[in-house]
Amino acid sequence: MSRSLKKGPFIDPKLLEKIQKVKPGQKVEIKTWSRDSTIFPEMVGMTFLVHNGKNFITVICSENMVGHKLGEFSPSRKFTRHGGRMAKEEAMAAQDAEKRAMEAAKAPVEGAKK
């Protein structure tokens, strides 16, 4: 849900200052905690380090991102996987298949020259 047209898009004033200090063509990573700042056209091509609550995630702005928020591209929740007996059995089967493939690769090839 966007802000009203009367208010306009939001950008953190400190982040705006950092963006204006960067010269065109300069490769600088701008570190920010402002996940709710809107991506402006001036930000296209810049690299941001957006904090997700634990660490910083690199976000490289492109034209398709204009109008979105910085936080949308830095997920703050980590999906591990759904659990259950079936998931465990599938994981075990995948591990067994990987072990067999590794053993087959290590076994000497029949008819190879020594």
TrEMBL record:
GO cellular component, one term: small ribosomal subunit
GO biological process: ribosomal small subunit assembly; translation
Family of this protein: Belongs to the universal ribosomal protein uS19 family.
Region of interest: Disordered: 80-114
Its job: Protein S19 forms a complex with S13 that binds strongly to the 16S ribosomal RNA.
One example GO MF annotation: rRNA binding
Keyword Ligase attributed: no
Tagged with keyword ATP-binding: no
Organism whose genome encodes this protein: Candidatus Doudnabacteria bacterium RIFCSPHIGHO2_01_FULL_45_18
Name this protein carries in UniProt: Small ribosomal subunit protein uS19
Designated gene of the protein: rpsS
InterPro entries: Ribosomal_uS19, Ribosomal_uS19_bac-type, Ribosomal_uS19_SF
PANTHER family with a match to the protein in the record: RIBOSOMAL PROTEIN S19P FAMILY MEMBER, SMALL RIBOSOMAL SUBUNIT PROTEIN US19M
Keyword entries, A-Z: Ribonucleoprotein, Ribosomal protein, RNA-binding, rRNA-binding
